[in-house]
Amino acid sequence: MKKLPHELRLFFTALQFLTRVPVPAWVGFEPAWLQQSVRYFPLVGLFVGCVAAVVMGAAHELLPNAIAAGLSIAATVLLTGAFHEDGFADTCDGLGGAVDRVRALAIMKDSRIGSYGSVGLILMLGLKAATLTEWLHASLSHALLLTVWTHMASRLAPLWIMRALPYAGDAEHAKAKPLATGIGKGGLLFAAGCVVLLSALVLGFAPDLALPLVWAVAVAALVCWRLQAWLKRRLGGFTGDTLGATQQLVELALLITTLAVWNFGLRQ
Asked: pTM above 0.70?
């Protein structure tokens, strides 16, 4: 009976860390819980994706598809406090130029956004909005399902990076020091199991998405593999900012790949 309340605390800890959603006062906080809560990141993504889908579905009833897609993205940015987007922008600034490891880490710690970060965010958000708009043109139900799925599945990718690489920065002065210790094999498997379960549910509602999802997972795995190699070469490991960048890139890769495979199938 004591196991469930602790697991609930871990979920709420993850929710509090990744979003602006207030959690019950009884949850409390212990630094060690943050490291343990990492396995619930995909479930937090499920929650964020559901909010995005609700906003998209409601807006679709009254507004053009492009605006519905934009409002859906805006809702997730507000809900998470642009948590992952900020990491993506900092990573673009730090690794966009030809600087060494020490300089790159210093740039990523700077709260100011530079040219690489600004352009990167514009391209990232623009491509997300365009892809979701096209999915809304193709199928409202598929757009809603994929919005939920991509938010959850993409939050598994940073956990893979945490498992595969060491922390690249100063662990003693990290903003979220417990995350610098990475994630255990059991936690990664639990998170992956959650994603597999949701994927099965999505296919239960939309079996015709099977091929797009398979290809999307393959492309996402390739993206993670290349990011892992790149971060190891440039930084010697991961930082909090690069985890956010990983989530954003994988989310976009999942959206674009599913749309590309879907459109290819329609032409056959």
From this structure: yes
